[in-house]
Specification:
Elements lengths: L10 E5 L2 E8 L5 E6 L11 H8 L3 E6 L18 H9 L10 H14 L5 E6 L1 H12 L4 E7 L13 H7 L7 H16 L7 H14 L3 H14 L13 E6 L7 H10 L4 E5 L11 H12 L1
Parallel strand pairs: 3-4, 3-5, 5-6, 6-7, 7-8
Antiparallel strand pairs: 1-2, 2-4
């Protein structure tokens, strides 16, 4: 772990009426840098070491569990949405209700900043978290100093779909017994990160074990996915973003193909695009130094 970097205890904030679990790394007096995780992933996938190294670059790093995942508030009373029906309706241009949207999730993040008495922060999001970060930059411009969107998308339905192997992963529920969950979780990370620069099995196992220990929420994953579907395309609205933007994407991403990252950078005025050779859909240890460099240098 980065030397002498403070790591807070887990805490909870009532953010826009939703109970959000979070922790922080680094000096509270440093400029805040907020990390938003993607669909189905808990905040621990922003690895402790990754966060400590980033904080060591002069930031107070904040990570949290999105609503409906990890230790944040669950929405089980909302039931499990029919993803097939929602996708069909979206393709036909028919508005369909979901328990919540990505815009609600962005409001959670702003609410967390309010509780922490942070006026504005550098905002970094990966995958679905990148979509939430984009919405923050669109809707809450004064709260975002810089935007970094990693392996994310504009949501344009004309973009290439996930590769078959990634699609299968997306639609295969993880087992709920510990042994089966850990085995399947490791396989998910293997498929998504790809063969060129994989997340190591030891790291994948650590994430799987910690995720199961903190609590799994199959219904929460479905509701988050529903939020992505019903929130639609942001492509046109992204043209309104005025904050400095960095887009990072791997050229071997099987879930959110690299064309999605290119489309995001093209949609946001003045955005810088960094395509990482061999990177899939994940944050492998081998790429931490470069990703941290890109984020820290962009924020400065």
């Amino acid at each position: 772990m980065a030397q002498d970097v403070y790591h807070s205890d887990l805490a909870f904030a009532k953010a826009s009426g939703v109970n959000i679990a979070y922790d922080t790394f680094g000096d509270k007096s440093s400029k805040p840098l907020l990390l938003i995780m993607g669909l189905a992933w808990q905040m621990i996938i922003w690895d402790d070491e990754f966060c400590s190294r980033l904080a060591g670059r002069g930031y107070q790093v904040i990570r949290f569990d999105n609503r409906d995942i990890g230790l944040s508030q669950r929405f089980d009373e909302a039931g499990i949405p029919n993803i097939g029906v929602l996708m069909s309706a979206q393709l036909k241009g028919i508005a369909s209700p979901a328990p919540y949207t990505l815009y609600d999730m962005a409001a959670d993040v702003v609410g967390l900043l309010d509780v922490l008495e942070i006026e504005s922060a550098h905002v970094v999001g990966t995958s679905m978290g990148g979509m939430i970060a984009q919405i923050m930059a669109m809707e809450f411009t004064d709260r975002v100093c810089t935007l970094t969107s990693i392996m994310s998308s504009t949501g344009d339905p004309e973009l290439p779909p996930p590769k078959p192997e990634a699609l299968k992963i997306l639609y295969t529920p993880l087992p709920t017994d510990e042994e089966g969950f850990i085995k399947s979780y490791i396989n998910v990370l293997r498929v998504l990160s790809g063969p060129e620069i994989p997340v190591s099995e030891s790291l994948a196992r650590k994430y799987a074990e910690k995720t199961f220990e903190r609590g799994i929420s199959p219904g929460g994953v479905a509701r988050q996915y529903a939020a992505v579907i019903v929130s639609g395309s942001r492509k046109e609205a992204l043209g309104s973003i005025t904050v400095p933007t960095l887009v990072i994407h791997g050229d071997r991403d099987p879930l959110v193909p690299v064309e999605c990252g290119i489309d995001t950078a093209n949609a946001i005025p003045g955005a810088k695009l960094v395509i990482m050779k061999g990177m899939g859909h994940g944050l492998p240890e081998a790429l931490w130094p470069r990703i941290i460099d890109e984020i820290a240098n962009h924020a400065k």
